[in-house]
Amino acid sequence: MLENDVKGFIKTIRFPIALVIILWLVHFYNVSTSGSLGINGVYPRAIDGLKGILLAPFIHNAKDNFQHLISNTVPLFMLTSMIALFYKRVLFPAFTIIFLLTGFAVWMFGRPVYHIGASGVVYGLLSFVFWSGVFRRNIRSIILALIVTLVFNGFFLGLFPNKDGVSWESHLFGAIAGLFTAFLFKSVLEKEEEDEGPWSDDTEEELRYFLPRDTFEMTRRERWVQAEAERRAREAQQGGWDSTMS
Fold it and tell me: What is the C-alpha separation between 118 and 69, in angstroms, rounded?
Protein backbone atom coordinates (compact mmCIF):
# COMPACT_ATOMS: atom_id res chain seq x y z
CA MET A 1 0.00 0.00 0.00
CA LEU A 2 2.75 2.43 0.97
CA GLU A 3 4.69 1.60 -2.19
CA ASN A 4 1.60 2.35 -4.30
CA ASP A 5 1.11 5.66 -2.47
CA VAL A 6 4.71 6.66 -3.14
CA LYS A 7 4.40 5.73 -6.81
CA GLY A 8 1.16 7.71 -7.07
CA PHE A 9 2.79 10.73 -5.45
CA ILE A 10 5.81 10.59 -7.78
CA LYS A 11 3.48 10.25 -10.76
CA THR A 12 1.52 13.30 -9.65
CA ILE A 13 4.60 15.52 -9.38
CA ARG A 14 6.25 14.38 -12.61
CA PHE A 15 5.57 17.74 -14.23
CA PRO A 16 7.23 19.81 -11.45
CA ILE A 17 10.22 17.44 -11.51
CA ALA A 18 10.52 17.76 -15.30
CA LEU A 19 10.42 21.56 -15.03
CA VAL A 20 13.26 21.61 -12.52
CA ILE A 21 15.37 19.25 -14.63
CA ILE A 22 14.90 21.44 -17.71
CA LEU A 23 15.81 24.58 -15.77
CA TRP A 24 19.04 23.08 -14.51
CA LEU A 25 20.08 21.56 -17.84
CA VAL A 26 19.53 24.89 -19.60
CA HIS A 27 21.47 26.70 -16.89
CA PHE A 28 24.47 24.36 -17.10
CA TYR A 29 24.57 24.98 -20.83
CA ASN A 30 24.23 28.74 -20.27
CA VAL A 31 27.12 28.72 -17.78
CA SER A 32 29.28 26.66 -20.14
CA THR A 33 28.73 29.27 -22.88
CA SER A 34 29.35 32.26 -20.58
CA GLY A 35 25.75 33.38 -20.53
CA SER A 36 25.14 33.29 -24.26
CA LEU A 37 21.43 32.53 -23.77
CA GLY A 38 20.68 35.88 -22.16
CA ILE A 39 19.77 37.47 -25.49
CA ASN A 40 16.86 35.02 -25.76
CA GLY A 41 14.98 36.73 -22.99
CA VAL A 42 11.90 38.89 -23.39
CA TYR A 43 12.84 42.23 -24.95
CA PRO A 44 9.74 44.45 -24.79
CA ARG A 45 8.11 45.67 -28.00
CA ALA A 46 10.79 44.19 -30.23
CA ILE A 47 9.81 41.49 -32.71
CA ASP A 48 12.98 39.55 -31.90
CA GLY A 49 12.07 39.74 -28.22
CA LEU A 50 8.86 37.77 -28.71
CA LYS A 51 10.74 34.48 -28.55
CA GLY A 52 11.52 35.29 -24.94
CA ILE A 53 7.88 34.66 -24.02
CA LEU A 54 8.62 30.96 -24.49
CA LEU A 55 12.32 30.88 -23.61
CA ALA A 56 12.93 33.47 -20.88
CA PRO A 57 11.53 31.47 -17.92
CA PHE A 58 14.14 28.75 -18.56
CA ILE A 59 17.10 31.15 -18.68
CA HIS A 60 18.84 32.43 -15.54
CA ASN A 61 21.81 34.64 -14.75
CA ALA A 62 24.97 32.66 -15.45
CA LYS A 63 27.25 34.96 -13.42
CA ASP A 64 25.80 34.85 -9.90
CA ASN A 65 26.95 31.40 -8.73
CA PHE A 66 23.54 29.75 -9.24
CA GLN A 67 21.79 32.13 -6.83
CA HIS A 68 19.22 33.28 -9.38
CA LEU A 69 18.42 29.73 -10.43
CA ILE A 70 18.10 28.36 -6.89
CA SER A 71 15.90 31.27 -5.75
CA ASN A 72 13.42 30.34 -8.49
CA THR A 73 13.78 26.55 -8.46
CA VAL A 74 12.56 26.00 -4.90
CA PRO A 75 9.33 28.04 -5.06
CA LEU A 76 8.62 26.89 -8.62
CA PHE A 77 8.81 23.24 -7.57
CA MET A 78 6.80 23.79 -4.38
CA LEU A 79 4.00 25.76 -6.02
CA THR A 80 3.74 23.57 -9.12
CA SER A 81 3.65 20.48 -6.91
CA MET A 82 0.94 22.05 -4.76
CA ILE A 83 -1.20 22.72 -7.82
CA ALA A 84 -0.49 19.24 -9.21
CA LEU A 85 -1.65 17.69 -5.94
CA PHE A 86 -4.67 19.85 -5.14
CA TYR A 87 -5.74 21.44 -8.44
CA LYS A 88 -4.72 18.71 -10.86
CA ARG A 89 -7.71 19.21 -13.18
CA VAL A 90 -6.44 22.67 -14.13
CA LEU A 91 -2.69 22.19 -13.71
CA PHE A 92 -1.69 22.27 -17.37
CA PRO A 93 -4.13 24.89 -18.68
CA ALA A 94 -3.52 27.15 -15.67
CA PHE A 95 0.26 26.83 -15.95
CA THR A 96 0.16 27.49 -19.70
CA ILE A 97 -1.99 30.61 -19.35
CA ILE A 98 0.18 32.02 -16.55
CA PHE A 99 3.36 31.19 -18.49
CA LEU A 100 2.26 32.84 -21.75
CA LEU A 101 0.26 35.74 -20.32
CA THR A 102 3.09 36.83 -18.02
CA GLY A 103 5.63 36.83 -20.84
CA PHE A 104 3.34 38.66 -23.23
CA ALA A 105 2.48 41.34 -20.65
CA VAL A 106 6.19 41.91 -19.97
CA TRP A 107 6.79 42.17 -23.73
CA MET A 108 4.01 44.75 -24.00
CA PHE A 109 4.74 46.92 -20.97
CA GLY A 110 8.19 46.09 -19.56
CA ARG A 111 11.35 48.19 -19.61
CA PRO A 112 13.45 47.86 -22.79
CA VAL A 113 15.95 45.37 -21.34
CA TYR A 114 16.23 41.59 -21.55
CA HIS A 115 13.97 39.94 -18.97
CA ILE A 116 14.97 36.40 -17.99
CA GLY A 117 14.14 33.91 -15.24
CA ALA A 118 11.16 31.95 -13.96
CA SER A 119 10.22 34.43 -11.23
CA GLY A 120 7.27 35.78 -13.24
CA VAL A 121 5.84 32.28 -13.47
CA VAL A 122 6.52 31.74 -9.76
CA TYR A 123 4.55 34.87 -8.88
CA GLY A 124 1.78 33.72 -11.19
CA LEU A 125 1.52 30.31 -9.49
CA LEU A 126 1.65 31.91 -6.05
CA SER A 127 -1.10 34.33 -7.01
CA PHE A 128 -3.16 31.49 -8.49
CA VAL A 129 -3.10 29.47 -5.26
CA PHE A 130 -3.90 32.52 -3.14
CA TRP A 131 -6.78 33.80 -5.26
CA SER A 132 -8.18 30.30 -5.73
CA GLY A 133 -8.77 30.32 -1.99
CA VAL A 134 -10.58 33.64 -2.30
CA PHE A 135 -12.74 32.62 -5.27
CA ARG A 136 -13.48 28.97 -4.40
CA ARG A 137 -14.03 29.59 -0.67
CA ASN A 138 -13.88 25.98 0.47
CA ILE A 139 -11.85 24.82 3.44
CA ARG A 140 -9.07 23.21 1.42
CA SER A 141 -8.48 26.13 -0.95
CA ILE A 142 -8.54 28.62 1.93
CA ILE A 143 -5.97 26.59 3.89
CA LEU A 144 -3.71 26.43 0.82
CA ALA A 145 -4.05 30.20 0.38
CA LEU A 146 -3.06 30.75 4.02
CA ILE A 147 -0.08 28.43 3.65
CA VAL A 148 1.36 30.26 0.65
CA THR A 149 0.69 33.60 2.34
CA LEU A 150 2.72 32.53 5.37
CA VAL A 151 5.52 30.77 3.48
CA PHE A 152 5.95 33.35 0.73
CA ASN A 153 4.98 36.55 2.53
CA GLY A 154 8.30 38.19 1.62
CA PHE A 155 7.49 37.93 -2.07
CA PHE A 156 5.14 40.91 -1.79
CA LEU A 157 8.07 43.32 -1.92
CA GLY A 158 9.07 41.92 -5.30
CA LEU A 159 6.05 43.55 -6.91
CA PHE A 160 7.73 46.96 -6.71
CA PRO A 161 10.87 48.38 -8.40
CA ASN A 162 13.08 48.32 -5.30
CA LYS A 163 16.16 46.45 -6.55
CA ASP A 164 18.40 46.92 -9.58
CA GLY A 165 18.70 44.04 -12.00
CA VAL A 166 15.38 42.49 -10.96
CA SER A 167 12.45 42.26 -13.35
CA TRP A 168 9.73 43.53 -11.04
CA GLU A 169 7.51 43.77 -14.12
CA SER A 170 7.62 39.98 -14.44
CA HIS A 171 6.60 39.67 -10.80
CA LEU A 172 3.74 42.14 -11.12
CA PHE A 173 2.34 40.79 -14.38
CA GLY A 174 2.79 37.23 -13.15
CA ALA A 175 0.70 38.05 -10.07
CA ILE A 176 -1.99 39.60 -12.28
CA ALA A 177 -1.94 36.57 -14.60
CA GLY A 178 -2.36 34.28 -11.60
CA LEU A 179 -5.33 36.27 -10.35
CA PHE A 180 -6.96 36.14 -13.79
CA THR A 181 -6.35 32.40 -14.11
CA ALA A 182 -7.73 31.66 -10.63
CA PHE A 183 -10.90 33.54 -11.53
CA LEU A 184 -11.11 31.77 -14.89
CA PHE A 185 -10.97 28.30 -13.32
CA LYS A 186 -12.81 29.02 -10.06
CA SER A 187 -15.71 26.76 -11.08
CA VAL A 188 -13.55 23.82 -12.17
CA LEU A 189 -13.67 21.91 -8.92
CA GLU A 190 -11.63 18.90 -7.97
CA LYS A 191 -13.41 15.69 -6.98
CA GLU A 192 -12.69 16.40 -3.32
CA GLU A 193 -14.17 19.89 -3.62
CA GLU A 194 -17.43 18.89 -5.24
CA ASP A 195 -20.37 19.55 -2.95
CA GLU A 196 -23.47 17.44 -3.31
CA GLY A 197 -25.52 20.31 -1.93
CA PRO A 198 -27.66 20.63 1.21
CA TRP A 199 -30.79 19.23 -0.50
CA SER A 200 -29.29 15.97 -1.72
CA ASP A 201 -31.03 13.81 0.89
CA ASP A 202 -34.49 14.89 1.98
CA THR A 203 -34.70 12.15 4.62
CA GLU A 204 -32.07 13.98 6.66
CA GLU A 205 -33.76 17.36 6.46
CA GLU A 206 -35.09 17.42 10.00
CA LEU A 207 -31.71 16.48 11.39
CA ARG A 208 -29.81 19.08 9.39
CA TYR A 209 -32.22 22.05 9.35
CA PHE A 210 -34.03 23.64 12.28
CA LEU A 211 -36.67 25.26 10.04
CA PRO A 212 -38.35 23.98 6.87
CA ARG A 213 -36.50 24.99 3.71
CA ASP A 214 -39.31 27.21 2.42
CA THR A 215 -39.89 29.13 5.67
CA PHE A 216 -38.62 32.45 4.35
CA GLU A 217 -40.15 31.98 0.91
CA MET A 218 -43.75 31.84 2.24
CA THR A 219 -45.97 34.89 2.68
CA ARG A 220 -47.37 35.82 6.08
CA ARG A 221 -50.81 34.55 5.03
CA GLU A 222 -49.36 31.21 3.88
CA ARG A 223 -47.47 30.79 7.16
CA TRP A 224 -50.66 31.55 9.14
CA VAL A 225 -52.67 29.03 7.11
CA GLN A 226 -49.99 26.39 7.62
CA ALA A 227 -49.80 27.06 11.37
CA GLU A 228 -53.59 26.94 11.67
CA ALA A 229 -53.74 23.62 9.83
CA GLU A 230 -51.06 22.17 12.08
CA ARG A 231 -52.94 23.41 15.18
CA ARG A 232 -56.18 21.78 14.05
CA ALA A 233 -54.36 18.55 13.26
CA ARG A 234 -52.90 18.50 16.76
CA GLU A 235 -56.32 19.17 18.32
CA ALA A 236 -57.91 16.41 16.25
CA GLN A 237 -55.16 14.01 17.24
CA GLN A 238 -55.49 14.97 20.89
CA GLY A 239 -59.24 14.43 20.69
CA GLY A 240 -58.65 10.97 19.26
CA TRP A 241 -56.40 10.07 22.16
CA ASP A 242 -58.99 11.28 24.70
CA SER A 243 -61.82 9.21 23.19
CA THR A 244 -59.64 6.13 23.15
CA MET A 245 -58.61 6.56 26.76
CA SER A 246 -62.20 7.10 28.03
Answer: 8
